[in-house]
Amino acid sequence: MQAGNENAAKAFFQKREEITAQRRLALAQDYGHQPWELDDNDALLILASAQWCYNTERWPMVVEFGNCLRSYFDQRGRWQEGILCLKRSAVASLITNNLDVLCQLVFDLGLLYDRKGQRTEAEGCYKTSVELAVQLHQTEVWAEATHRLGWIAHSQGDFLTAETYYRQAMDMRQPDDTIGRSRSLHQLGMLAHDQGDYAKAKAMYEESLQLRRDQGDLYLVAASLHQLGVLAIEQRLWAEAEPYFEETLALREQLRDLPGQASVFNQLGIIAQAQGHYQTARSYYVKSLEIKERLGDGVGLIHTQMQLGALALSRNNLDEAQTWLNPSLDECQRLREGYLEAKTRFQLGIIYYRQLKYPEALAQIHQSLASFSATRGAERDQAGAWYQLGLIAHDQKQFDEAEQYYDKSLAIQEPANFQPDAAQTHLQLGLVAQARGQFAEARDHYQASYPVFQQAGPRFAFHLAKLTYRLGIIAEIFGELEVARDYYQQALQLYEELSLPDSESIKAALERVNLS
User: Fold this and answer.
1) What are phi and psi of 398, to 5 degrees?
2) Which of 289, 287, 317 minimizes the C-alpha distance to 301?
3) In whole angstroms, what is the distance from residue 85 CA to residue 90 CA?
């Protein structure tokens, strides 16, 4: 009798657990399109139910749970847990000989490995899904997996192979697959972007954006707008970049996409900072920081802490900058984020430089330079590190060494068309030449900088003022008094507009030229 009651009790609890699992599955499916809204406690219950279904061989439910939880873990950067869920689902689909489902699951597993940075494992999954897709005539998965193989090649710097895969994927798309075609076009834009072909990148992004607008997929529209904004930022086109991000933010808010909102706030902060709107920039960065803290986004927090540190540094608030950068450095080391650690060390090096702590500055910058040199796509960072080393040597009147560092910086900046950066380096090379009495060489460098600073607007007004004064001095040395007078008059106007010191020195120079 007792054994019978025990069996009945087990049957009752098993039935109750099954009902609960069904309810949790429905809950997971409800939130499947917005996994960041799924409550963590419910997710744990769903995970427990998935395990129960696996143990009791309820294979179809195992597959469903795996798909729902993959999105949940993906959004939170908990990719290893998502990988385990999908592996369990793949086993379930293999046991039931459901190859159609397996094909998609293996592809999704590749995506998670990709997110986790395990490119070799991701590539293996994509190739397996291609094989299954060819066998099963699943053209959509075939195209998507080929597209992702393009991304793998792209991330490894193999641009030719990447473009081949991207174009193959686009050719495989069905005529009515506008979303798929838009993704291929978007990645071709990214490819051009990474190779510095901004005009081609913009054309690809805009073509992709139009397809996405026609389709009405707001999430992908936001992604295209975001990338167009990033492209404009890299070209220092602040007025062009801002509307892209404002529209992106409106879409992210409509979609309740918190990670996307955090990213946009960060970009808007960069734009505001570049235009000298420091309080606005800080408010954007703080909004981004609050969202990332809420989501537990460790890498995202590092990015925003670095931006807040850079903002404080741009205003010469060195103590505040360090309060942001020191925790950022600790977190980089904890998460083994080598490139972000190098970026943080570089900023700390600038702080030490401004504090005249040259040995500490050199140690940080040399360490960051080693990482930048080994990182694909970090050319601007590398050039910046050489430039900073030049400033340190320059300050210590080590002119030969300073010139070598500046030349290394310029050798990266000019071929890559980093015009404002190159103009600043030319200015410094001009100062080195002038300090040596090489006035003709100094003038060549100053004149290379002058049109760039003129066109760059308010952000480089300080540099333009200093440069114009220097050009006046050189012209006076060569006896070109009319030219010198024009430069001094321009310099005086800029100095007074910017409330810079030493305007009396320019007035004295003007008086001297007028008396000659």
Assistant:
1) -95, 75
2) 289
3) 9
Burial class (CB in 10 A: 0-12, 13-18, 19+), 400: exposed
pLDDT over 70 at 24, yes or no = no
Per-residue burial over 229-254, b = 16 or more CB atoms within 10 Å of its CB, e = otherwise: bbbbbeebebeebbebbebbbebbee
DSSP character for 337? -
Residue pair 430/449 in contact (Cβ under 8 Å)? The answer is yes
Q: What percent of the chain is predicted at pLDDT more than 70?
A: 86
Buried b (16+ CB within 10 A) or exposed e, 327-350: ebbebbeeeebebbbbbbbbbbbb
Task: Please give the span between the terminal C-alpha atoms of the chain, in angstroms, as a whole number.
Answer: 122
Q: Per the structure block, which two tokens stand in for 84? A: 């385990």
178-194 and 198-215 helices, crossing angle to 10° = 160
Q: How confident is the model at residue 272 (pLDDT cuts 50, 70, 90)?
A: very high
Say if residues 38 and 31 touch (Cβ distance below 8 Å).
yes
Gyration radius of the chain over CA positions: 29
Q: Would you give the distance in Å from CA 293 to the centre of its chain?
A: 18
pTM: 0.67
Cβ-Cβ contacts under 8 Å for 465 (sequence gap 6 or more): 491, 494, 495, 498, 500
Amino acid letter, 24 = R
Written as one letter, the residue type at 119 is R
The residue type found at 194 is D
C-alpha dihedral sign at 483, 486, 492, 493: negative
Please give the Cα distance from 195 to 199 (Å, whole number).
11
How far apart CA 6 and CA 420 sit, in angstroms, is 80
Q: What is the SS3 assignment for 257?
A: coil
Model confidence pLDDT, tens digit, residues 175-232? 888 888 898 999 999 999 988 889 999 999 999 999 999 989 999 999 999 999 999 9
- Hey, what's the torsion of the CAs at 117, 119, 121, 127, to 10 degrees? 140
Residue 272 Cα distances to 101, 224, 459, angstroms: 47, 21, 11
